[in-house]
Write a structure and sequence with these properties.
By secondary structure, the protein is an alpha+beta fold. It contains 14 helices and 19 strands. The strands form 4 sheets. The protein has an 8-stranded antiparallel beta sheet, sandwiched between helices. A 5-stranded antiparallel beta sheet has the order 5-6-10-8-9. The protein has a 4-stranded mixed beta sheet with strand order 1-2-4-3, with helices on one face. The radius of gyration is 22 Å and the shape is globular.
Length: about 400
């Protein structure tokens, strides 16, 4: 049976224009936008029965930079699954369908003085499912955890079209295996996330972000950064060459450093003064509501480059990147030791070697002709086991077999 005949047997409800879901210039043969969980499961089940490869879609924020997988037959658009289904303000938990945008979810929580510290780029488009699938995080990762740390449970579709639940909806839950944590960060490679339950935080009574412009000598001065880790800033991020994405806090200096503080107003005020004593007068100071766009702009700047290396390190001071070879752009969330860096053309291999010699471990590559060190044999075996259990027919096009995953 040819592909067109096979696609004709898929559930036809809510067909969408495949051209909207192109990856690396390659559009799928078909696209579907299910209205609910049962429709989504039926589509995945049909793909499994007919040997089709699918890619789950949310807002396409991260997917926009991916190249097409080798087998890309169907795009599964989950944006219609966008309800907040259960919100328990007294328990600080929320359950929402994974097509809800970050902006919509934030607005629903803010009305009750609560927040979910997920830091995906482009929140007007980014969906809850997309942020979970990418395990996306920003400058507050160390303080509040990654999405994997906040998820309590999930509803999802396995690769053979079975609707399943994992975890629960409350914080004190020990039922079953934590499959939901495996799905977070899997990039839609193990199953299709439909709904997730997450733990919330009260919105902080005060926020502040300071923006400083520094040169390489100031960045390398270890004395400036002593004491920051003890005070647990919500942000200590270094940026360079990030172009239009960094416009909200451009300083004109070689490096821009953004420090963020949250908590009791008196504590925040004390931290602002303490920071000024170490780094000098800031180019700008943003408080409370005015600080929120600055934190968001840091997430946007990290996601913006079409080509980049993502690395992790135990180094948690800005000094770790002061003497790196030249790059066209970088965003370094120092407390979490997470670096997003774009090499200069032709300098990719040399930059990767220099970073690894300085204790940075590569975890992803986007749009660059670089081979990352292969994961260990045990890791590869574990991934194969998970794929065999959750996606036995290899329906998920971005499964563990795709690309040189770390």
């Amino acid at each position: 049976m040819d592909l067109s005949a096979t696609l004709a047997q898929l559930p036809a409800a809510n067909a969408a224009d495949p051209a909207r879901y192109a990856l690396g210039g390659v559009a799928p043969a078909a696209a579907r936008r299910p209205a609910g969980a049962d429709e989504a499961a039926a589509i995945v089940r049909a793909c499994s029965e007919h040997g089709l490869g699918l890619v789950p879609w949310g807002g396409g924020v991260t997917l926009a930079h991916e190249r097409a997988p080798g087998r890309y037959d169907l795009a599964l658009d989950l944006s219609a699954l966008d309800r907040v289904t259960i919100f328990e303000p007294d328990d600080f938990t929320v359950t929402a369908e994974c097509g809800v945008t970050l902006d919509a979810l934030r607005a629903a929580l803010a009305a009750h003085g609560q927040e979910l510290p997920l830091e995906g780029a482009a929140p007007a488009r980014a969906t809850l499912g997309g942020v979970l699938a990418a395990n996306a995080s920003g400058p507050r990762r160390l303080r509040f955890g990654s999405p994997r740390d906040r998820v309590l449970g999930a509803r999802f579709v396995t690769g053979d079209g079975v609707l399943a639940r994992t975890g629960g909806r409350v914080v004190k839950n020990v039922a079953g295996h934590a499959v939901h944590r495996l799905l977070v960060g899997s990039r839609g490679g193990l199953g299709v996330l439909l709904e997730a339950s997450l733990k919330l935080l009260p919105a902080p009574p005060a926020r502040a972000c300071l923006v400083h412009g520094l040169d390489a000598m100031a960045l390398a001065d270890a004395a400036r950064w002593r004491g920051f880790a003890r005070r647990e800033p919500t942000a200590l991020t270094v940026l360079a060459g990030t172009g239009a994405a960094a416009a909200p806090f451009a300083t004109g200096a070689s490096f821009t450093v953004v420090t963020g503080w949250e908590g009791d107003p008196a504590w925040v005020d004390a931290c602002v003064e303490w920071t000024i004593a170490r780094l000098g007068r800031p180019a700008s100071l943003h408080r409370d509501r005015d600080a929120e766009p600055i934190v968001q702009a840091l997430a946007d700047a990290a996601e913006a480059p079409a080509t980049r290396l993502t690395l992790a390190s135990a180094h948690n001071s800005p000094t770790a990147i002061a003497a790196l070879p030249a790059a066209t752009a970088l965003v370094f969330h120092a407390p979490a030791g997470r670096l997003e860096i774009t090499p200069r053309p032709g300098g990719e291999a040399a930059l990767l070697e220099a970073l690894m010699s300085r204790g940075f471990e590569p975890i992803d590559v986007r749009g660059l002709a670089l081979e990352l060190p292969a994961p260990s044999t045990r890791v590869r075996a574990l991934r194969a086991q998970l794929a065999a259990a959750l996606d036995p027919r290899g329906v998920m096009a971005f499964g563990p077999h795709w690309k040189n995953r770390r």
